[in-house]
Design a protein that fits this description.
Chain lengths: 420, 376
């Protein structure tokens, strides 16, 4: 066991840091205020900068570095989990984001895709040129995704004709593609007739309509309608009707460290509490405030450390399956971390409003949309109304890619071996 | 960065696991809980012979010079077996002697500690119930070549069997509470000392030790006059990490027996493990245990490097204390009525988990330490 990075790992870390230090200076004004509000997808100049930045990251080879060496010609060099984790750590510390879904198609295509599809997509993904939304959820298919009804029916010429309606569809109005889950065999038993496709969102027959969420005016979610949309046969990912099993075996995303971005925000809020006085005393000297913050801070340190443990376990067992329950961090770690993150974030948001009190409900004025009365909104970091916005945006948005309840179910049955 | 066990550590773990499974099943724990001594001298000897007591002491005194992280591995196994033994206070006293004793004292005491001959205990806590220096009110006053100790120590473990007490005293008021603490090694049979049992939740052997004009020769001072707090505080940090590792072991065992029960107990025609009310409790325990284990390793590594480690220790014991309470309480919810009965093992664990949660500071105490560590 060792808490230190090797000289080589420190070198990687510095390279990521130096690059990002320079990059963040180039962001358009207000970018990081909006970023924290995750509104960067809304303003054109912010979205465009994100895309340009992503291409520069791609040019460095950092999007595809974790791919197997089999894909060396697209930059795959089987980078160590620690290296990819260090990249994610530095990204989070710089509050930087890659363009939405840059690698969403990467894992599925490099694990299951045809040679043709790989040749078409992998170079562009590696270069940071692809953006992609997730076309999974439907009105009757959230946690129980196998209820999805959207169909892709094979035509005599081999192409597929897609009809259906996806909802939520984050950033669908910005991205070029969707990773679509659809039924290709309507007669199969539940789960057995699904296929996945890489679908160009400009295809005729696709209508995208904005679906506002409660986080404010920021445009994030959409409903995507498919009316007789023709999808070329070559855009099928993997084996027809086998998507359900394949989905659980996607590989090729790098490792990441959960909790770093949360810590950046947490530290800003602690600073706010030190600088804000109530009844003549800094908030941070109030024992109740200290207690609330410390409890959150302790858990955050635990989350980050579990993350590192899981990355180093992956590093050690590279190429070999990881086994066992309870004897150290294992495959369940990612579900544990996802669950912890999704429960920590709302707790932090709630605690922040309670610590700040009545003015926590005043909306601030992030760059993209001014709010009335914003001068009364408490300023955290350089963001007026951050607490209000964070609460509205993050106390309730912990469901995508699996609700905490569903993650518990997965951990209970797959991790602990409890009966279903 | 590597937070995984290496081969030697896995061997240590297996060796400890197998030994304790064989020698210290719940039946033995129950028997010892009711015995007057509270531990098995035979098992203690075996443990010493295996080199466990000397695990992290330098080779020159007979130890194996392994690291604090290695010791957390052993502690996890001792926790899993809820081994009743004078291990902890003896080793902590030994570590204090190692940290600030004279070479003479080290040569005199450490080999005997390591080979299991001498049992030590810490006379630390007082009616103030504080683990901070400000809580120490027992006085030691110079009188010729001696010091005279007066006052009361509480929850002193194993005082009935200890050969030596490591007594934490106040030798002056001074500007800071830390600056007036001096450590003494005292024989419990010394005239003026009374040892009275205190019955606790865990029924571990805890005592009130009262000092009434107890005369201790100057040579028994450990470390410098008024300089006792710094080395002791360092040992208490190590103790908090080891206590956390022990909690990991206890909680892990609770989780395992509760999972077995959830698979076998049938209620309303279903295994109770099917019910999400039960699943969620077990997953929460699992989550906490994974975090506590990794944190105990982390803090042990930091302390092992000689770094301050205040933040890591606070996080570790705060999280482990919460884990102890969670495993103790939720474990009982899974076993329901059965676990409440004395013949069930659950209550052996939950009573000890409560002691471990409170020992060296519960979560609330360490939240404040964390707040200080991040300069909140
Ligand atoms: C902001 C946002 C962005 C999103 N972006 C996308 C996107 O880009 N692409 C996409 O495809 N989807 C997206 N989603 C959809 C998201 O994946 C679903 O919301 C999520 O899977 C939950 O489904 P649901 O909302 O239909 O809830 P339901 O599945 O209806 O669940 C309702 C409640 O029942 C609980 N529940 C369900 N099953 C169980 C069970 N077995 N045991 C215990 N409790 C259970 C859930 O935990 C929840 O509390 C997004 C959602 C949000 C909120």
């Amino acid at each position: 066991m060792d808490l230190h990075f090797t000289a080589e790992q420190e070198k990687w870390r510095k390279e990521f840091k130096d690059f990002l230090d320079e990059e963040v200076k180039k962001a358009p004004p207000g970018y990081f205020v909006d970023d924290i509000m995750s509104d960067i997808h809304e303003q054109d100049d912010h979205w465009n900068w994100t895309c340009e930045f992503t291409k520069r990251v791609g040019a460095k080879g950092w999007i595809s570095m974790g791919w197997p060496t089999k894909f060396a010609k697209y930059g795959g060099r089987d980078a160590s989990p620690i290296e990819t984790a260090l990249f994610s750590e530095q990204m989070a510390l710089h509050e930087a984001t890659l363009a939405y879904g840059v690698n969403t198609l990467g894992g599925p295509i490099l694990t299951h895709g045809s040679k043709e599809l790989q040749e078409e997509f992998l170079p562009k993904i590696a270069a940071g040129e692809i953006t992609c939304m997730l076309g999974l959820s439907e009105s009757d298919a959230g946690s129980d995704l196998a209820n999805a009804k959207t169909r892709a029916i094979k035509q005599p010429d081999g192409d597929y004709l897609v009809n259906g309606h996806k909802i939520f569809s984050s950033m669908g109005h910005r991205t070029a593609y969707t990773l679509l889950l659809a039924i290709t065999d309507p007669n199969a038993r539940k789960r057995y007739g699904f296929s996945r496709f890489a679908v160009n969102l400009k295809s005729p027959g696709i209508t995208i309509s904005t679906w506002w969420n409660m986080s404010g005016k920021g445009h994030h979610q959409n409903q995507v309608f498919f009316d007789d949309v023709r999808v070329p046969a070559r855009n099928l990912i993997g084996v027809e009707n086998q998507a359900w099993g394949e989905m659980n075996r996607d590989r090729g995303g790098g490792s990441s460290i959960t909790g770093i971005g949360m810590k950046v925000l947490f530290n800003k809020f602690v600073k706010f509490c030190q600088e804000t006085k109530r009844n003549g005393k800094p908030l941070s000297e109030d024992p109740v405030v200290r207690h609330k913050l410390a409890e959150l801070g302790v858990e955050l340190d635990v989350i980050i450390q579990i993350s590192w443990a899981s990355v180093t376990m992956r590093e050690k067992t590279r190429g070999r399956p990881i086994e066992g329950v309870g004897g150290g961090i294992h495959t369940s770690a990612s579900a544990i971390l996802d669950m912890m993150r999704k429960e920590w974030t709302p707790r932090f948001a709630i605690a922040a409003t309670q610590i700040v009190g009545p003015l926590a409900q005043v909306r601030g004025n992030p760059v993209s949309h001014l709010q009335e009365g914003a001068k009364w909104a408490p300023v955290v970091g350089d963001m007026p109304g951050w607490i209000e916005r964070y609460y509205r945006g993050h106390a309730f948005d912990n469901h995508r890619h699996g609700t905490p309840e569903v993650l518990r179910m997965i951990l209970a049955t797959r991790g602990l071996g409890l009966p279903r | 960065m590597d937070l995984t066990l290496n081969e030697e550590q896995q061997m240590l773990q297996k060796m400890a696991h197998d030994f304790l499974e064989d020698k210290c099943p719940p039946l033995v724990v129950r028997r010892l809980e009711e015995s007057e001594l509270g531990y098995s001298p035979d098992m203690w000897r075996e443990i010493a012979d295996l080199g466990w007591v000397g695990l992290i002491f330098p080779e020159q005194y007979g130890g194996s010079e392994l690291s604090l992280v290695d010791l957390t591995i052993l502690y996890e196994e001792m926790g899993r077996a809820i081994l009743p033994s004078p291990y902890t206070p003896t080793v902590l006293a030994g570590l204090t002697i190692l940290a600030c004793g004279s070479e003479e004292q080290k040569k005199e005491f450490l080999p005997k500690i390591i080979n299991g001959e001498s049992i030590f205990t810490l006379a630390l806590l007082e009616p103030s119930a504080s683990y901070d220096a400000a809580g120490i009110a027992v006085t030691a006053k110079a009188s010729g070549d001696d010091y005279i100790i007066n006052g009361t120590k509480l929850l002193v473990p194993n005082a009935h069997i200890a050969d030596w007490l490591l007594c934490v005293t106040r030798t002056r008021g001074g500007k800071t509470p830390e600056g007036g603490i001096t450590l003494f090694l005292v024989k419990p049979k010394n005239p003026g000392i009374t040892v009275e049992p205190i019955s606790t939740t865990a029924l571990d052997k805890q005592f009130e030790v009262t000092f009434a004009n107890v005369k201790v020769p100057k040579e028994n001072m450990l470390g410098k006059l008024n300089g006792g707090w710094a080395p002791l505080a360092r040992v208490l940090q190590q103790a908090a990490v080891l206590q956390s590792a022990e909690i990991v072991g206890m909680s892990q065992k609770v989780l395992e027996i509760a999972i077995d029960w959830a698979k076998s107990r049938v209620v309303y025609e279903q295994q109770i493990g099917v019910y999400q009310g039960i699943q969620h409790k077990l997953v929460n325990m699992f989550r906490n245990i994974e975090g506590a284990r990794v944190m105990a390793w982390t803090a042990a590594l930091v302390l092992g490097e000689g770094l301050p480690g205040t933040r890591e220790v606070a996080v570790t014991k705060a999280w482990a204390s919460q884990t102890a309470q969670l495993a103790g309480y939720e474990g009982h919810q899974v076993f329901a009525g059965q676990g409440y009965m004395q013949e069930h093992d659950m209550q052996l664990y939950s009573r000890r988990l409560k002691a471990a949660e409170l020992n060296l500071g519960q979560a609330d105490y360490h939240f404040e330490k964390f707040a200080q560590a991040i300069e909140m």
